[in-house]
Every structure is written in C-alpha cells, then in structure tokens.
Write a structure and sequence with these properties.
The structure holds 2 protein chains of 2 kinds. Chain A is an alpha+beta fold. Helix content of chain A is 35%, strand content 22%. Chain B is an alpha+beta fold. In chain B, a hairpin with a 5-residue loop joins strand 2 (61-67) and strand 3 (73-76). The chains are: A alpha+beta, B alpha+beta.
C-alpha cells in the first residue's frame, strides 16, 4: 500500500534483544557471506533509506532515523556501519545495533557515503575486487549514487539487490515472531479507531485515535488511512468534525523494524457489498496461495471476486505482497506476475474496492508453508 | 483564523506563488517549467511541487508543469488519490496516475510540450524511474530550473509565516501537555505518543518530535522504553508542521526541583539564546549570530563543548518552500534577510549538567528578529512552575 511517509520515525525506538538477539544478526551475516562467495563477490555495500530501510536493517538491526545509512561487508572483514549522522548521534546509535565496535560517520546526512565506503573497502580489498551494491540506486539521491559509483571506479561493481533480496524474502523464525508482534499492534490500533468512531468521534479523530493507539502499543512508525472525504482512502492532514456514515481504516505499523498492516470497517457484518467483495477477494487470494504458485494467480483469483474485475480500483490500491523490514517487499501481487511463492515468505494481502458508491476493505497476513499458507 | 478563511488564504497564496514563478519562466524565455517533488518527505528538505501545488503527495514522485502562458498541471500518484489531490490543491488541472514516469511523459506529449523550451527543478529528489525518464521527456535538453524556483521561494510568504506561527502555537500546547502528564514510571515512548496525539488533534500534519530523558543527557534522541524517574531532565525537540511548514521549539523540564549546577548550566544556554536573538537582523551574516552564541558560551568556560559531539549547530531552517538560511553555523556564508525563518537553539552538553535543549522559532523582519513563542525558553519543573 502506498502510504504517507512521515519525516521522522518518532515512536518507540529500541533494540529488543529478547526478540532479535545478537546471534540472529551473526547468522544473517554468515548467510550473506555464503551468498557473496557463490556470487564471487569480495565485498558488499548495502544502503538503506529511512523510507525504505530493509536492506540496511537486515544486517544492522537499526533503522536510519533520517536519510541513509550503510553497511560495508567483506568476506572476512566487517561489517562496518556507515552513518550519515554526526558524532553527536553515535552514543544513541550504539544502543540500537549490534555493530557497536565499528561505526563510521560520514560528513553529512545530505551527502552520500562515497568517501567513507571507499575508505572501509580499501582496508580489506585491493583495487579490482568485485563489489556488490545493494539499495544504492534507489536509496541515495541520483547525485550521491553517481558519486559512489565514481568513487568505486577502481573496483568491479555489480548490482547486489537480488542477492540480499533472496535472503530477505524467506522470513526466519525470529523475524516471524517480530512480525506477529507488529500485527498485534496494528490490529489493536484498528480496534481503537473503530471504538472511537462508535463512541461518536469524527472520522479524522477516529483515525488520529488509531495512530495514537499504535504509538502507545510500541510501534516506531505508523501510517493510517481512512475514508475522510469520500469513498477513497486518505491520510489525516487536519482535524475536522466531519463524520461519514461508516468508517474504513487502514493501518500499517513498524515495530522492531518489522512492518504489519491491518484494516477495519464499521460496516463489517452489515450489507456493504464493497466490504463483502473485498473480503471475498482476500479469501480467494489466501485460498489460492501456496508454494510454487505464481503470484499472478492470486491476482486472478481476486479479480473474480471484485465488482470491476481486472479494472477494479483494488488494483490501483494494490493487492499486497511480501512484507517484512519494508512495508512493500517482493513479490508484488499483480496480474500476470510470474514470481512463484516459496515456503517461509510472508504476504500481506489486501483489497480495497468500491461498490454502490461505498468503500470497503479487507486485509490478511499469511505465511507460505510447505503445504499451503498459515494465517500469521 | 477560521478553517474557511485559512483555506481562502492558502489558495490565494498558492495562486500568488504560481504567478510569481510564471514571471521567472517568462524572464528566462522558457515555454514550460517542470517542478518535481518527492514523497520521501523531509524535515530539512524542500519540496517545491508541494509548495507550488498545495498537495503533499502520497506517491514517490509528483510534478507541476507551469507554462509561460496558460494553466499549470499537477501530476501525482497513485490514481486513487485523485479526489484528495483535487480537494487539497489550488491547481485545478490534476492528472492522477499509477505509473508516474509514463503518466508524466504522456501529459507532456498530449499538452504539446515535447518541443518546448523547458527547464526542470527538483531533479535531485526524483525517483530513479523519473531520473531515467528525464532526458527523453522533451525533444531538446531541459535547462536547470532550480534557480527559477529559488528566486521566488527563497523567503517565506505571508501564508507560510502564518503556518509557522500556528505550528509554534501547537508546539507550545504540546509542551504544556508534556509538563501536565509526565510522571515517574511512565515510559519515554508513552510520553511521546501522548504528546504526538495531542498535537495531531490540534492540527499538526506531521512532527519531527524527539522526546527523551535522563539524569545526565548526552543528546536528545528518539523515545525508548526508559521509565521516567524523579530527577530526570526531559528533553523535547518539538517540531509540528502545518500545511507542510515546520516550526520548532526546544524545551527542557525536570521532574522535581533543579539543583544549582543545572540552573547555572541552563542559564548559560539561555543567555546564549538571548544574545543570538539580539544579533539577528537583516544584513547580518549567519556566522556572526553563531559567533555571538559561541563566544558567550565559551566565555563561561565551555569552549571545548561548542563543537561536535557536544553540539551540532546553533539552529537551522526547515522545509517546505525554502531552506534559507540553512544551518546557523560559523561556516555559513548566508546573510539574514526579511522573511527568513529558523529555530535558534544553543542546544548543547555541559559536563556539570548534561545536554539541555533551549531554543525557539524565529522570523527575520524588516527591523530585526521576532521570536514566535509566547514565552522565553526556561528550565521548567514538571509541576509546570517556571523555576529559572
């Protein structure tokens, strides 16, 4: 789902060692190094942006509060954490990551990591070595990306997104535990919003109540959408007294780095054809999902239940896909997509549609198993 | 200002921005200016498509196409956001698409702008997809249009100042709420969530909010599980935005009564703030303001602490339209001018009392500088009584 990006992830910010202990990250690094060896990579440079932190968070456990952060990893050296923040921020950063021994600060949040990355690589790699770049194209500005490529001109640079993407797609048991916690927060937040609305709150106030409940529940970031001014989802941008005749709420939360989403509909249980169609579409996708199933088949199953078929507005909202350290991960459920599901992948499925001039929505989160799927 | 009058004011301001920028387009003998904006909203980053359209975009990219003659076009994503885009924007011609790069190219082609003399502003913030599409959008290479936008957006207009003023009111209300509800046993993140929700109800559309506490702070940071206790100094960097225009106040409060070393250390920062405020006026170099603050604090014996990691800067501007004067730093080459707005904050660490926040939002006027808060920053006891 496309949501409104906050300028600061300003909620509960902790490294919970009970859920994600240091050995979890040691094991991830070992797996990445195995993949590097198979790909013939001598080094890996991973960049994450606060708006799409997953690649960075997978290796560090931390979420960049602003702008970008990076990880430099050798087959035997590192990992080194490269921060765009200044030295003032290092003491707190040390509480948020297992990489406390080698944090290197770059000159500015607004410039790229080129100089620091090249310095770190130079400590363990001679020129000519093969370096995989992960996330840099998407998560640095075009200028900073070009600067990084230029700084790495003495190395053989290749795209490394697929290498880390494959590892991240299958969720490890501790990742699933974190995702279940996130899902609980999201569902409680939806309940709080619906309860506020049932008590007579305006639509905007009910959505703000949803957001507050998510933050009090312990999420770091939260995105809330609802039917504020008509039969489409929108974020709250100003308070208001307007109260529609029903409430549809969507919430996405990030807790311990992991995203989950949930939705609620005050029409649930009543005769809203859009809500019924949305629920049927999500159930159809859940029923179709399983190992080796193409995600395009899920989209086709949903289309059969939606009032507009393949032209339904639900396809503009998106039918969901992988979820984890980023809200929208691979694979994306869309018509014709040939990517096939693998055991261990976690999918956030959704449908938001309009029927008889009324919005309705539904969501579900499932884990792909050897035989089919399990509700998370 | 009522909701209706605010809406009228924002639309009038928007039309004025369009006409002022159109004059820049005409002076540069361009046919069309493409102004790009990003959905990766940033506290210290301009978004000129938002500034020019009034729409905070949901999707990764947004654009306003402003012709030298004729109505502008707003291109935004996703398509399901079209209703909100039409309600929020003062640009009447709205095109909402799901594939932004393709949709933008289609608009340029169908409106007859492919062969136009064009310039592009905001390219540095575009997605890789739009960055890759830019060279082929127009028949001839587009010029850099950033200077045209900055010629208009470099100082805040009256509507932007009114948003900053309202944001300061909300920030002060948020801080009062903090002082009312903070209590021993409460966790930092719970306090932050309560204050955040309060400011959202008052109209903050986003917030660069940092609330943390310690008996001896090293810096302010994001809220954690730490439980508040008597003797804690709560730091609040409170920065709500109204219609995308941020303002910031920096406050420190203690649970219980402050001791002499805390009062003394805070007083040094407050004197630094006052000296800096008195130095602010049109024509004064920013580095002179930073020097006044640094000299005063250094003279009290803290020269070692007037640099990282003990502090970062003596203040800074915030988005939406202009980032001038950027950091209040001794390395700045900016000269203050009427219409500039920024937070002035001599926030820093002292070995006796730890890190304190002390700062306020300031607007440069024709005559000097105006601090926007209703009260000068002070070290507050959590009961709410001002004790220093």
């Amino acid at each position: 789902m496309i949501t409104m990006h906050n300028v600061l992830k300003r909620g509960r910010t902790v490294w919970d060692r009970g859920v994600l202990p240091e050995d979890e990250y040691v094991e991830r690094v070992r797996l990445v190094r195995e993949a590097m060896a198979q790909a013939g990579l001598d080094g890996l440079v991973t960049v994450g942006h606060t708006a799409r932190p997953g690649n960075f968070t997978y290796l560090s456990g931390s979420v960049p509060p602003l702008g970008w952060m990076g990880i430099v990893l050798g087959r035997e050296a590192g990992p080194f954490l490269v921060s765009g923040g200044g030295s003032r921020e290092v003491p707190f950063l040390r509480t948020q990551t297992w990489l406390i021994d080698d944090i290197r600060t770059s000159r500015s949040l607004f410039h790229g990591p080129a100089a620091v990355v090249v310095e770190a690589l130079g400590e363990f790699m001679p020129s000519g070595g093969r370096v995989g770049l992960v996330g840099a194209r998407e998560d640095l500005t075009p200028v900073a990306h070009a600067e990084l490529l230029d700084a790495l001109r003495d190395y053989d640079v290749v795209e490394g997104d697929a290498l880390l993407g494959d590892l991240r797609a299958v969720k490890r048991p501790r990742e699933q535990a974190a995702q279940r916690r996130s899902l609980e927060i999201a569902r409680r937040a939806v309940d709080a919003g619906l309860e506020a609305w049932e008590r007579g709150a305006s639509t905007a106030s009910a959505l703000i109540a949803t957001e507050k409940a998510a933050r009090l529940g312990g999420c770091r970031d939260v995105r809330v959408l609802g039917n504020l001014d008509g039969e489409q989802l929108a974020p709250v941008e100003e308070p208001g007294d307007t109260r529609g005749d029903h409430l549809v709420v969507y919430v996405a939360v990030e807790h311990l780095g992991y995203w989950a989403q949930a939705s609620g509909d005050s029409d649930a249980g009543s005769a809203n054809p859009a809500a019924s169609a949305a629920r049927a579409a999500v159930e159809a996708m859940t029923g179709a999902a399983g190992p080796a199933v193409a995600v395009g088949d899920l989209a086709a199953a949903a289309a059969r239940e939606l009032p507009g078929g393949e032209g339904d507005v639900a396809f503009s909202y998106g039918l969901g896909g992988g979820i984890g350290l980023d809200l929208s991960e691979r694979p994306e459920v869309r018509p014709g997509a040939s990517a096939t599901l693998r055991p261990g992948e976690v999918l956030a499925l959704q449908a938001f549609t309009v029927a008889d001039g009324r919005l309705g929505g539904a969501t579900e989160t499932v884990r792909v198993d050897a035989e089919g799927v399990t509700l998370l | 200002m009522t909701g209706e009058s605010r809406d009228t004011a924002r639309r009038e301001a928007g039309r004025a921005r369009i006409e002022a920028l159109r004059r820049q387009v005409q002076e540069r003998e361009l046919d069309v200016l493409l102004v790009l904006g990003t959905g990766r909203h940033h506290f210290i980053g301009a978004n000129h498509a938002w500034w020019l359209s009034g729409l905070r975009n949901l999707g990764r990219d947004a654009a306003v196409l402003l012709p030298s003659d004729g109505e502008p076009v707003l291109v935004t994503a996703p398509s399901w956001d079209e209703g909100r885009a039409r309600r929020r924007s003062w640009v009447e011609d709205v095109v909402a698409v799901d594939d932004f790069a393709t949709g933008l190219a289609d608009v340029i082609r169908t409106r007859g702008w492919r062969g136009a003399r064009a310039a592009v502003a905001g390219a540095a913030t575009a997605s890789p997809e739009v960055t890759n599409a830019l060279p082929a959008l127009f028949d001839a290479a587009a010029a850099d249009g950033d200077d045209a936008v900055l010629a208009v957006a470099s100082t805040h207009d009256a509507y932007a100042i009114s948003c900053i003023e309202r944001a300061v009111e909300i920030a002060e209300a948020g801080y009062r709420h903090l002082c009312e509800i903070a209590r021993p046993g409460m966790k930092e993140f719970e306090l932050a969530a309560e204050c955040d929700g309060h400011m959202r109800e008052l109209g903050a559309d986003d917030n660069f909010l940092l609330i943390s506490a310690s008996q001896h702070n090293l810096a302010v940071h994001a809220p954690t599980d730490r439980e508040l206790s008597v003797g804690d100094i709560i730091l609040g960097e409170i920065s709500p935005s109204v219609d995308g225009q941020f303002a910031q106040i920096c406050r420190s409060a203690i649970i219980g009564e402050p001791d002499e070393r805390q009062l003394s250390a805070y007083e040094v920062l407050r004197e630094g703030y006052q000296a800096g405020l008195e130095a602010c006026r049109p024509g004064v170099p920013v580095k002179e303001v930073a020097r006044v603050i640094n000299d005063l604090i250094s003279a009290r014996g803290y020269a070692k602490y007037c640099k990282p990691p003990y502090m970062r800067t003596r203040g800074h501007a915030m988005g939406l339209g202009t980032l001038a004067p950027a950091d209040i730093s001794d390395r700045s080459e900016v000269v203050l001018a009427p219409g500039m707005a920024f937070v002035l904050h001599p926030n820093q660490y002292t070995p006796e009392a730890g890190y304190f926040l002390c700062g306020d939002q300031v607007v440069i006027t024709q005559d000097g500088a105006r601090a926007l808060s209703s009260a000068v920053p002070s070290l507050d006891a959590i009961s709410g009584a001002v004790v220093a």
